[in-house]
Design brief:
The protein contains 13 helices and 20 strands. By secondary structure, the chain is α+β, with helices and mostly antiparallel strands. The mean pLDDT is about 85.
């Protein structure tokens, strides 16, 4: 009989090089079964062995990358689609354990939410041998994820396999959907807004504008795209617009201002404009976004109110003049009434000055600073006046003017203003809902509490509805009062 044999072994050549040999042959035996001779061939398989070693190393590297990859990956047989291996990212994405998946197919796991997606994957593999970035939905153990699916046919060992990779874009799709919904809500809000919402480029040309412009200016949005805002602004208003545009480009923050603009019919419309600079991702200015409200009716109403207020103040001053005339005429023939006449005249004049400031103030109010400065105008070098800008209602302003007048009159007669070295410090402040006022005299003669209470003193103590603190110090009179702000507000 004969025996065939095959064996792999290594030899060392005379030059010291190690080679792999594959020996193949057969042994010839005699009738007793003893080997009598053999013959065969020896084949140098060194290169094949090197290739096998490199293949094993490559497969080892592949498996390392496969397991460590941050995206979900699987390896399955091409023949029947059964999973051979899956990585940790796929387990995290699906919620399955490894033993739940290995040996099963995607169809057995109901992985494809849409049957059509499974068919598309098969069609692409059949026609192109690969799948790239196919968006589909895959079902895990607990939820459904939207992924970008890719696949390649690869040789693994002696078998054709399918290598898949799935990039989870569920959160990105949700963010995109939320962004689209937000943009749609913004578009609806802008489209239906009563105010004009517009964007202009750095040259002042409209790049977008909402339909409200047609109601306010009589022009359709498409008529204004590419048109310079300046062409709609009256000539005398253009310098203000140009200044605002330049300040915006130079980086000024959100700005509110009023301007006039011309409607299609030539009517002037007053707009209250809020604008903001828009920058690109590099921080460079690219446009200006604005919201403009038509306040024409409000401005007209304010103008009518101001006119009416001035007429009322004029009539009030006329009435004061009549009362003053009657009072002084009555006292003129009364012996020794000159001092009384002067006192009453001063009080009438204080009320008249208050009326002047009420007429000039916004919304019927008067400036406390202007009232104080007007009353102390003859003594400006002997007075320091300090306090925030405050507009008080008419009734309070009139009483306040009388109090300041009486304090100044008394200071002129008996206090700090009766000597050239005297000085008065007038201060007021607002702390929360409280208004505080101080009148402090220094450098005048020593003062003492009056022995009798005259009308002037009563006026000082009672005119403002709150009891003041009046101190007659040797250094000078001190007057302080705290009043709720609700009594001042117009």
């Amino acid at each position: 009989g004969t025996d065939y044999y095959e064996n792999e072994y290594r030899i060392v050549r005379p030059d010291g090089q190690l080679r792999w040999i594959l020996g193949r042959g057969r042994v010839v035996r005699d009738t007793l079964g003893k080997p009598v001779r053999y013959f065969g061939v020896d084949i140098d398989i060194t290169e094949r062995k090197r290739a096998e070693t490199e293949l094993r190393a490559a497969q080892s590297r592949f498996l390392s990358v496969f397991q460590l990859a941050p995206i979900a990956m699987s390896l399955g047989t091409l023949r029947d689609g059964r999973y051979i291996d899956v990585n940790a990212a796929l387990l995290a994405q699906t919620g399955y354990r490894r033993e739940d998946i290995i040996g099963r197919t995607a169809r057995e796991l109901s992985a494809y939410v849409e049957k059509r997606d499974f068919e598309r994957v098969r069609e692409l593999l059949a026609s192109q041998g690969k799948v790239r970035g196919l968006e589909l939905q895959l079902r895990g153990k607990m939820d459904v994820r939207t992924v970008l699916f890719s696949a390649d046919i690869v040789a693994f060992g002696d078998e054709q396999c399918l290598l898949t990779a799935s990039v989870d874009i569920t959160d990105r799709k949700a963010a995109e959907s939320a962004l689209l919904e937000s943009e749609q809500r913004y578009r609806d809000l802008v489209h239906n807004a009563n105010d004009i919402v517009a964007t202009v480029d750095l040259q002042g040309r409209f790049t977008s504008i909402n339909p409200a412009v047609e109601r306010v200016l009589g022009q359709r949005p498409e008529e204004l795209i590419g048109v310079s805002v300046e062409t709609l602004i009256p000539v005398e208003e253009r310098p203000k617009h140009q200044s605002m545009l330049q300040r915006k480009i130079e980086g000024e923050g959100a700005t509110r201002y009023e301007t006039q603009i011309q409607s299609k019919e030539g009517r002037r419309v007053t707009l209250e404009v809020n604008s903001k600079l828009i920058r690109d991702s590099n921080g460079d200015p690219v446009a200006i976004h604005s919201i403009s409200r038509d306040i024409t009716e409000r401005k007209d109403a304010e103008a009518r109110q101001t006119l009416l207020l001035r007429e009322l103040q004029h009539r009030a001053k006329n009435l004061l003049a009549v009362v003053q005339s009657i009072t002084l005429s009555t006292l003129r023939n009364v012996p020794g009434s000159a001092a009384v006449q002067a006192t009453i005249l001063g009080r009438f004049q204080a009320l008249a000055r208050a009326q002047d400031f009420v007429a000039a103030g916004p919304g019927g109010g008067a400036s406390l600073d202007e009232i104080v400065r007007a009353e102390l105008a003859p003594f400006v070098s002997q007075a320091s006046i300090e306090g925030p800008a405050l507009i008080a209602r008419t009734s309070f302003a009139q009483m306040f003017a009388l109090v300041v007048h009486e304090l100044a009159t008394n200071a002129t007669k008996y206090g700090a203003l009766s000597t050239p070295d005297g000085h008065i410090s007038i201060r007021w402040s607002v702390d929360g809902d409280a208004f505080s006022f101080w009148w402090i005299e220094r450098g005048g003669p020593a003062v003492e509490p009056p022995s009798t209470t005259g009308f002037g003193t009563k006026l000082i103590n009672a005119a403002l509805d709150e009891a003041p603190k009046v101190s007659y110090r040797s250094s000078g009179l001190e007057y302080a009062v705290v009043i709720p702000m609700e009594q001042l507000r117009p």
